[in-house]
């Protein structure tokens, strides 16, 4: 199958990017500064439980071998978005969906079509990196997360940058807003004082890292549609040649694992509680992390309108951590898939990223591919 090429974003627009904190313009402060020499974050550069970046090539190799004449691809639980990004190289139309707000922001930055000014992004990031964290006042982010998930100065800078993005939003295109916000999310995640998720933080303050904002590797695709809906509901609204499913499989809710990044993205500044600094109510909880997982999965698979259904399954059913034990067994998934048609199963040895808390022996990734009977 011929690979689809992305259309590069329009970066020709001119918008005001004047700094709000420094007395001089960024150009005057850094006349020789070149953001093109600053390494950019790729979509896969996140510490995210269940990320499929290392096996995306294997997944698509199997999909291409087992499907034919497919032109559209729906990723219902997109997570990091790496499977959707890979699908854009192979299919004419790609739909990306996830309930997490911060994930949606990232898809908009890396994948959505739209106009943006790369120099504006570079100037903003240069300005933020010129500020001394010790010289600015505390803010919502530093008061809640400073000396916990981040050092105090780094937390001040992250909160200051987030406030500035929101203040300048009226002068930004939607693409620029999301590129700046995704750049901040990735930059904050990179230095967080955690093992990769935000259920807890390291108590050793010597491990606090300095904050430096870096841009993301934004691209534009004209053939992508981005959603933020419940997967079971969206499956009843759209159809696709291939539907790819990688739902949560254990009790660890993603809205809890990544509440800090979700709060940074939304920026509605709720009251936070306890030592973990979580909101009292966590939104976007998944039924796939509860005892209702199997019923939800059967409902979803029954509702899907597709020629092929592909399911990724990580075999953590016998994990040594109870919270990491799968809510559905391999056999239950296989039986559900066979209700829709002929199903093949493939396996691959794979050491999945799990934030360093789950010890799993003989870990394998399992891929089910069902050709839906008509």
Textual characterization of the structure:
Helices cover 32% and strands 13% of the residues. The protein is an alpha/beta fold and 374 residues long. The strands form two sheets. Strands 3-2-1-4-7-9-8 form a seven-stranded mixed sheet, with helices on both faces. The chain has a two-stranded antiparallel sheet with strand order 5-6. Strand 1 (72-75), helix 3 and strand 2 form a beta-alpha-beta unit. The chain is globular and about 65 Å long. It starts with 25 loop residues before the first helix and ends with a strand. 44% of the residues are buried.
Secondary structure topology:
Elements: H1 26-29, H2 56-66, E1 72-75, H3 82-87, E2 93-97, H4 101-110, H5 118-129, H6 140-145, H7 152-167, H8 174-191, E3 224-227, H9 231-234, E4 240-245, H10 254-257, H11 259-266, E5 272-273, E6 278-279, H12 293-303, E7 306-314, H13 330-338, E8 341-349, E9 364-372
Parallel strand pairs: 1-2, 1-4, 2-3, 4-7
Antiparallel strand pairs: 5-6, 7-9, 8-9
Task: Quickly list its features.
374 residues; 7-stranded mixed β-sheet; two-stranded antiparallel sheet
* Radius of gyration, in angstroms, nearest whole number: 21 Å
Share of helical residues: 25-40%
The main sheet orders its strands as 3-2-1-4-7-9-8
By DSSP, the count of extended strands is 9
Q: Helix and strand string, N-terminal first? A: HHEHEHHHHHEHEHHEEHEHEE
Which class of secondary structure composition applies to the elements? alpha/beta
Distance between the termini: 24 Å
Largest sheet: 7 strands, mixed
Output the number of helix runs. Answer: 13
